[in-house]
Amino acid sequence: MRRVLLPLLLLLAACSREALPYRQESYVFGTRVEVSVAGLPEAEAQQATAKVLADLDALNGRLHAWQAGSEVVALNAAFASGQAAAVAPDLKALLQRTQQLEAASDGLFSPAIGRLIALWGFHADRYAPVSPDPVRLRTLVQARPALSDLVFSGSQLGSRNPAVALDLGGAAKGWALDRAYASLKASGVHSALINIGGNVMALGAKTDGQPWRVGIRHPRKNEALAMVELGDGEAIGTSGDYQRYFELNGKRHCHLVDPRDGNTDCQLQAATVIAPAGKDAGLLSDVASKPLYLAGPASATHYARRMGVRDILLIDGAGRVWISPALNQRIHWLSKPQQITLLE
C-alpha cells in the first residue's frame, strides 16, 4: 500500500493584518511547488515567479533519473559503457559539490546509487511493492558506486566504475531552491518563501518585518508538529519514511536506500535540518538530512558538524524525538512529543 501525504513542511498562515503575498503553484520533481512573493505589484511578482517555475521545469527534465532525454540518463548510459559524455557547466559544479558532501557524510549521502534505487522499484512514477533479488542487491552493494569514481575532464565526464548511476533526487530540490532564491533576488524580490516539496527557503522577511514561519509536519499525522522562523537565506529540509514508500509483508520500505547495505529499513520516521544562510543553503538543507536519517541519533551530531548544520531534529520509529540544543532554542511545539532528548 502506498499513501501520498502533503509535504512535511507547511507554510503557516500569514497574519491577517498583512497583505497576502502573491502565490503560484506548480508540480515539479514529482512534488508540489509553491512560490510566495510579497511586497511587489502582482504583475511584477507574477513575472518573477514565472521565471522561477520555468527554470524548475527545465531542471526536472534535465535531472530526471529514468526519463529518456535527460542529461542524467545520458551520463549514466555513458558510464555503463565505459565512455565519457558532455556535462553542462552548472551540472558539473553541482556534481563536484556533491562529491564533497558525499565524502563529508562517509558515503551515507550518495547520488551514485541509482541502480540500487531502481532495484527497489523507485525509478517509476507509480511503483509497487517489490522484493529485490538478493544476488543482484549484493552485487550492486559490493560494486561500491560512489561520486569519487567520477572523472572530470574539461566538459567531459566519465566514471572509473561502471556501476555508478546518478540519481540526484537527494539534492535536486535543494539545488533548485538556491537557483530560485538567486533568480528572485535578481528580479528585484526582497520578500519571498519558496517551497519545493517540503524543502523551504526564505528570502528576506515578510512585509511587516516578521520572519517567515514554516511548520514541521508530524510524520504520522496530517498536521504540523511544530513551527520555526526562518531568517533570510536559511533553508529547511526533511528526509522521511512517509512520502515515497511501500509496505511489504508488514514492513515499511522507503526510498532512502542505505548505500552501505542496499537496504530500506526506515529506522527513523524523519530527520529535519535547517541550513544556515550561504551560497548553497538550499542544497545543504536537502543533502544533510540524508546522512542524519541513516546514521540515527547515535551519530547525528557528528555528521551534522561535518555537513555544516547545527539545527537538527530526529524522530524515531516509536515517535521519540532527538533535537540539537540550537534548534531546541528556536522551535515552537504545537503538539509536544512525550519524549524529547537533547543531542550532545
Descriptive keywords:
globular; 344 residues; alpha+beta; disordered N terminus; four-stranded antiparallel beta sheet
Task: Please characterize this protein's 3D structure.
The chain is α+β, with helices and mostly antiparallel strands and 344 residues long. 31% of the residues lie in helices and 25% in strands. It contains 10 helices and 18 strands. It has a 9-stranded mixed beta sheet with strand order 2-3-7-8-11-14-15-16-18. α1 runs antiparallel to α6 (172-186). The protein is globular and about 60 Å long. The two termini are 37 Å apart. Residues 1-17 have low confidence and may be disordered.
Summarize the structure.
This protein has helices spanning 42-63, 71-80, 89-104, 114-119, 134-143, 172-186, 281-287, 289-295, 300-307, 325-328, and strands spanning 9-11, 22-28, 31-37, 85-86, 150-153, 156-159, 192-196, 199-203, 212-217, 224-230, 235-240, 245-248, 251-254, 268-275, 311-316, 321-323, 332-333, 340-342. The chain has 344 residues and is of the alpha+beta class. The strands form 4 sheets. It has a 9-stranded mixed sheet. A 4-stranded antiparallel sheet has the order 1-9-10-17, with no helix packed on it.
Q: Separation of termini?
A: 37 Å
Average residue pLDDT: 93
- Percent helix: 25-40%
Cα-based radius of gyration, to the nearest Å: 20 Å
Which spans have pLDDT < 50 for at least 5 consecutive residues?
A: 1-17
The main pleated sheet reads as: 9 strands, mixed
Name the beta content range.
25-35%
Number of strands: 18
Q: How many individual helices?
A: 10
General shape? globular
Could you give the order of strands across the largest sheet? 2-3-7-8-11-14-15-16-18
Classification by helices and strands: alpha+beta
SSE succession: EEEHHEHHHEEHEEEEEEEEHHHEEHEE
